[in-house]
Every structure is written in structure tokens, then in C-alpha cells.
Amino acid sequence: MQVLAYLPFYPLLSFLLLIMLSKNLTWLQASIISVSSVGLSALSAGYLIHNFMISADSVVAVHLWQWFKLGDAAVNFALRLDSLSAVMLGVVTGVGFLIHVFAAAYMKGDENFSRFMAYMNLFISAMLLLVLADNLVLLYLGWEGVGLCSFLLIGFWYQEPANAKAAKKAFIVTRVGDTFFAIGLFLLFREVGSLTITDIMTSNELGLLVDNNMAFWICLLFVGGAVGKSAQLPLQTWLPDAMAGPTPVSALIHAATMVTAGVYLIARMNNLFLLTPQVMTIVAIIGALTLLLAGIAALAQSDIKRVLAYSTMSQIGYMMLGLGAGAFSAGVMHLMTHAFFKALLFLTAGAIILALHHQQNMFKMGGLLKKLPVISSLFFIGVAALIALPGTSGFVSKEAIIAELYSSKTAGPWFWWAAIVGALITSVYSFRMVFLTFFGQYRGCAEITKPSHYLLIMPLFLLAVLALAGGLITLDLTALFDVNVIDISTEPSWLHSVAVATPFIGIVIAYLIYFPHAGKTIRESKSKLTLFIQNGLGFNGLYSLLLVKPFLFLSKCNKNDVVELLIKAISWNVVTWHEVLKATQTASLRWYLAMLALGVIILLAVLLGQTSGELA
Amino acid sequence: MSQIPLNHVFIFAIILFVIGFIGVIARRNTLFMLMSLEVMLNAVGLAFIGAGSAWVEADGQVMFILILTLAAAEVAVGLALLIRLQQQRQCLDIDALNELRE
Amino acid sequence: MSVEVPFYFAATIAIIASLRVVTGSNAIHALLYLVVSLLAVAVCFYFIGAPFAAGLEVIVYAGAILVLFVFAVMMFDLQGDDEPKHFGREGNSAWFSAWFGPSILALLLLFELVYIIVVSDSKQLYVSNIVEAKQVGILLYGPYLLAVEIASFLLLAGLVAGYHFAKPDAGS
């Protein structure tokens, strides 16, 4: 159990070390410290998961110390490993380790390298707390911790105002979701009296929750939190802007781990959600809408990282759809495989961006298949998994979700169709990206330098293996999730074939529209519709109109309130007295002396008055 | 022997002190201010010696010697400053020295 | 012979000389009046029973410090402006305003201090005792040793500061 207890603290220790020594470390020292700490966590995680799989226990728990008390209920600093958190643990430490290795090479030239790796370590630590937390308060600590790291890392290159703005936006928008989550926690505590996960899963009060309609509100608030963190509708606007951060950050935080925290939360609270089918349907609707809208938005992007960002949103939409349909294990499976192939895609995209000297515009790429064959083929593997071609990990998990949608009680044929259309769009935008990037003529002007550092290439290969073969990992989550009894017999027989065929249809469509045949000119479209879609279907403008502008107006109205007057009075007093006292500073020595004498005279007069009064 | 009351010595010292004080605050010439200061110091010394004599204690004279030392040091520094002032501004007017005002 | 007459005589001379010091317009004349004032005070010291202090006053004050003054004034031409408009035609009001305020303050101070002296219970005390230099020496190198050390530091500081400030500019 010691192994589990120490696990989240290796990266934390490394974070403290790096932050304290910061600029005194060479690249080698800093990368060894940061990467090895995550590697240590990954090794411990591997050991733990191995032990967990061969042992009969369904839960491994370790109590560290009591954090504080809420009434009678103690909130402990305790870690808990069950099959769900084991999956997350594997993903966070495994993918996290590979991304750390990549990041060490990717960020080698940056002057703030230690700071970058320190934030990455802090993120891993917070994420481990999140997934291993024994109670929801500790989970919330990790939840906020990853949010903070996300903020710090998006704004890592804060000298650029746009990056700082993107960081603020991400922080504030996720904060909205976090507030929902916190209120949900308070409500849950009021109703159940404990926030320990075991208590919530086994509480007898849950039935009461349904009766007084509280379960509905709690679940809805939790969905609010999950939606904010996982960039789902309607709080999705921050994720594309978050691509301002360095690419390894996008891979680690905004694709593989943090954004899936919302999915993890809903999966974790599955028994609560199962009590409220309405909320499950809401989750499914949110997931379906997000996957469609994000897919459409991805079709119009020109920045390769933004395509991947919208694709992430859309894939998380799939997970949400799966969760909403009650296919918890399929959703979690997709979470895992998505972490593999999306990390692979982001990192290969990062390698391409590095090779092209920070050129991210796909219209300035092209023909890279010949110039960067290794990276291109790795990218193909990622894309194949993303659009769920048979034989890849994405196929296994996405088909598992789609298969359960049709006859789910909380979803249905409509959602099935949404998922199919989503899959079609996915393969269209993926191959649009592939065709623009790798085929045709090279349209950029920057010279291509082949990234040759072995640290840069090795993680890509490992991730590619995972993206291909990750589907073979069988997750046994039956101990956690009630096995959904889905009546397969009523389903039409063509469902499965349609689902398998969809990606290929998408490829054909993409080939017809986007393939850069010889003689075809590739230009960025600047039509109004394209720009509208490119900017995320107008959500930014809508929020600005509905929220930001009224808020600014209100704050402007409220500028001269009582508090303001009070503060102004203070400053007025200070200024006035300053002027009065300044007038006494005449810089005339004789004047000072005369005043000194006057003071002495007055003092003596007072003294004399007192003594003569006493005498009299 | 002598029949000089201590009060008279004190009043004499006060008159000298006040004369010196008028000089310090009325004169604008720094050299005269310095001389007036000497008058004031001298008056204080006189008061100490008068009191020491009245109570037959040597402390008054010790204080006078310390004041003498102080006056010597003060004159050394003061005159050096005056010389520097004369070199740099060709003027000893104390009212012209107001650069530290703001 | 009674000591009162020479004491009051010397005191009058000291006061008049001091007045000439603060009102004078010629620096050298004022310095010489200051010497006169100091010598008169030295006479007073002698008559109130402090012959040693009287000697110091003559030797150190009049003989050393004032000579330093005279040297500085004459060698470096420290006349300054003699405030000539004090007695000028339209300078009368300026002279009046320059001296009126300080005089009022000084007179107030004088009255207060004199009042304190008059009402205090020191009326019966007479300065009729001679304090020998021996007593002063014993006291100075006994209980007042620390004060003497501090005074020597003060003199050293005065020496260093005087040297430093009066040194000609390196540039000029």
C-alpha cells in the first residue's frame, strides 16, 4: 500500500524541486528530475495495476491522514484504487510519462524549461489526486489543481497577450463548471451526509434522493461541472483557444487527461446517475450535440491543432453519449483509447510543427508524406484510430459505444444516427487534414528540419503501438457498473454494418472534395460561412453578447457606488493632507528654527500654566 | 566672599542665549548664523558653570568642557561646509539653499 | 574689593558685544566683537568661582575656535552678502520685517525663561564657591570617562568631515 500512498507525490516533489531550483538547472538535470518522477509514478502504477488484477480485492484503499472534519463526517486524505481509477491511473501515468519524454525534447530550447516541466509535474500530481481520491472533496482538490495547471500551461508563453487571454478564458469558463460542481457537492453532502465515494455508492439514502427530486438536481450540477471541464456544450468555447499552449500541453491536458475528468466524474458517480434517467438523457443530448457541432467546426479549421482540439471535443462528446446511454464501460474504454490516439496525434502534430518552425496552418503545409515519412505514417495510425478503422483501438471503443446506443433506455435511434453522422464527419475532417497536410505540393516557405532527437520519436512509436493495440486491453469494469441489459434482439441487423462502413464513406467524400490533385489550387476559404464555422459556430459572439457585455455594462454602472466613494474619500484625505503637510516643508532653515522656538515657547507656557495652577 | 545670586547668572545666560537665538533666525548669512550659534553655546556653558559653582560641584565645568568640544567640532564642520558653499555658489545666503524642497 | 561690580560690568560688556555680533554687517568686525564677548564671559567665569573654565574659555574658545573662524573668513573670503539693504532707503521695511518676528519670539522666550528663574526656589543660592581644576579633572577621568571618549570621537569626526568638505574639488 506504500506504493499507492507515495504515487501522487513523486511528481509533486519534482515540482517543488524544479520550482525552487528553477534556472539553476541545466536541461539535462531538469528533464531527468521531471521525467523520472513521472516514470516512477508510472512504474508504481504498473505494479499496482498488476497486483490489482491478480488479487481478488475490488478496491485497494490507503488512508494517509485526516484532512478536516465536516460536522461528524471526516474528510480524509485517502487514496482508493478500483478498476475505474486503475484505468485512469494507467492512462495518466503511462501517457503522461510518454508525453513528458516528448516534452523534454520538444521544449529543449526554451529558457523557462524548468518552469514548464515543473507545471507539467504539478499537473500529473493533481490529476493523480483527482483519479485516486477516496472522497469527492479530495477529488475536487485535484479537479481545481488540474484547472490551475491548465491555466498556467496555456499561458506558459505569457509574453504573447493572446496566450494570456486564452489562459484566462479557459480558467474562467471552467470555473463556471467548477461552481456547479461545488454546489452539487454541497447538496450531496446535505442529503447523504458524507462525500466518501464508498458511502455514496452504498448509501441507503439514495432512494430518498429520488423521491424528493434531489438526485436530479445533484446530477445536473455534476453534469455542469463535467461539461465545463470536458469542454462540452455549452461551456466548450475555451478548448480551441487553449491550443495557445505548447503542443505537449495540448496533448497531455487538453486531449489525453484533464478534459476527460468530466467523463471520469460521471462514470465515478454512475450509480447516482442511474437513479435519474432524465439527466442521463441530458448527458446523451449534450454529447450528441457536441460531437456534431465540434465535428462541423473542425471541418473549417485551418490550424492543425485547432482541428485536433475540435476533434477532442467531438470524441469526448462520444464518451458523454456513451455514458448518457448507460454504456459506462464503453465510455471509459473510449476515454482510454482516445487518450492513446489523441496524444499520438497531438505529439506527431507537434513534431510536424517543430519541423516546420512553428507553422501550424495546414494551408502552408502539404506534401509532407515524402518529406517526413516516419512522422506521417505515425500520424496516419492516429487518424485511423480516430475515425475507428477496423483493427485499431478506436474501432473497438467507438463501436462499443455506438452498438449500445440504439436500444438504450436513455438514448435511442436518434442518438444512434447522431453518432453515425458524427463518425462520418469525423472521417471527413480527419482526411481533409491528412490530404491538406501530407499530399500534394509543399506550400510553405520555411525549410523543413527533420526532428531527429530520439526522445522525440520514441514516445511516438510507443503511442502508435498503443493506438493500434490498445483495443486489446480488456477492461473488466463489471464490479463497478451494473451490466446494462440491452435487448439486442430488437435491433435491425444492418446497424453494425452501417457503423463499420461509415468511416470509409467519409474517406471517399473527403477524397472527392479535398484531395489535392495535380493542378488543383489549394486556398484558404474566406467566405462568411467558413469564418462562422471556423470561429466555433458563433458561440463566442453569443456569450460575449449575453454575458460579457452585460457584465461590463453593470460594472460600469456600479463604478461610483458607496464603496467606491469611501475609497475615494480615503484617497482625497491622503492627497489633501499631503498638500497641507507639504506646505510646511518650506526648505527654509530659519523658518524651521522659528517654528522650533515657537514650539518651545508654547510648551513652556503650558508647563508654567500648570505649575502656577498647582501653586495657586 | 562674593554675593552674586545664581539667579542673576542665569538671567545673564538667558539674555546671551536669546541674543544668539535672534541672530540665528534673523540673519540670512550663514557665517553670522554660525557665530550666533557660538553665542548660544557660550550662554549654555555659562549657565552650567553658574549652577556648578552654586552647588560646589565640578560637574558644571565638566559639562562646559564637553560643550567646548562640541563647539570645536561644530565649527570645524560648519566652516568646512561654508567653504564648500562659497566655492560652489559664491553666496552664503541660507534661503538660497532650498533644493531639497521637493 | 567686591566681586559684584566687575561681574556686572563684564556681563554688560558681553551682552553689548553679543548684540553687535548678531547685528553687525562686517564679518571680521563681528568676529572681533565675538572675541570680546567671549573674553567678557571668561571674566564672569572667573568671578563666579571657575578659574579653570575661565582659562579654557580664553585659550580654547577665544584663542583656538575664534582664530579658526578668522582664518577661514580671511583665507576663503567668506564675507557672503552683507545684507546691505538692511539700512538702505527702501530697505527699512525689509529690515523691519526681517527682525520683527524673530525679536518677538526671542522676547517671549526671554520672558518665559526669566519668569521661570524668578519663581523658582533658587533665590537663596549664591555663586560664592570656587571649584578647583583638580576636582574637575578627577570627575572628568572618573565617572565621565565615557563622555570624554565620546567627545574625542566627536572631535575625530569633526576633523574628518572638516578635511573632507574643505578639500578642493578634484575636478576643478
CATH class of the largest domain in chain C: Mainly Alpha
> Which spans of chain C have pLDDT < 50 for at least 5 consecutive residues?
85-90
Query: Which consecutive residue ranges of chain A, at least 5 long each, have pLDDT under 50?
Result: none
Query: Structural class of the helix and strand makeup of chain A?
Result: mainly alpha
Mean pLDDT level of chain C: 83
What shape does the CA trace of chain A take? globular
C-alpha Rg of chain A (nearest Å): 30 Å
Termini gap of chain A: 90 Å
What does this 3D model show about the protein?
- The complex is a heterotrimer of chains A (616), B (102) and C (172).
- Chain A folds into 2 domains: 134-541, no CATH class; 544-615, no CATH class.
- Helix content of chain A is 71%, strand content 3%.
- Chain A has 27 helices and 2 strands.
- Chain A has helices at residues 2-6, 9-21, 27-54, 83-106, 113-132, 136-154, 161-192, 197-202, 206-211, 214-229, 238-241, 247-256, 261-268, 270-274, 277-299, 304-324, 328-355, 368-371, 373-386, 393-405, 413-438, 454-469, 495-514, 528-534, 539-557, 562-584, 589-615; strands spanning 60-70, 73-81.
- In chain A, a hairpin with a 2-residue loop joins strand 1 and strand 2.
- In chain A, helix 12 (247-256) runs antiparallel to helix 17 (328-355).
- The radius of gyration of chain A is 30 Å and the shape is globular.
- Chain A starts with a helix and ends with a helix.
- The model of chain A has no long low-confidence stretch (mean pLDDT 83).
- Chain B has a domain at 29-94: Helix Hairpins (Orthogonal Bundle).
- Chain B contains 3 helices and no strands.
- Chain B starts with 5 loop residues before the first helix and ends in a 13-residue tail after the last helix.
- In chain B, 61% of the residues are buried.
- By secondary structure, chain C is mostly helical.
- Chain C folds into 3 domains: 1-82, Four Helix Bundle (Hemerythrin (Met), subunit A) (Up-down Bundle); 88-123; 131-172.
- Helices cover 73% and strands 0% of the residues of chain C.
- The longest helix of chain C is centred in the middle third of the chain and has 29 residues, at 91-119.
- The relative contact order of chain C is 0.07.
- Mean pLDDT of chain C is 83; it is low at 85-90.
- Chains B and C meet through helix 1, helix 2 and helix 3 of B and helix 1, helix 2, helix 3, helix 4 and helix 5 of C.
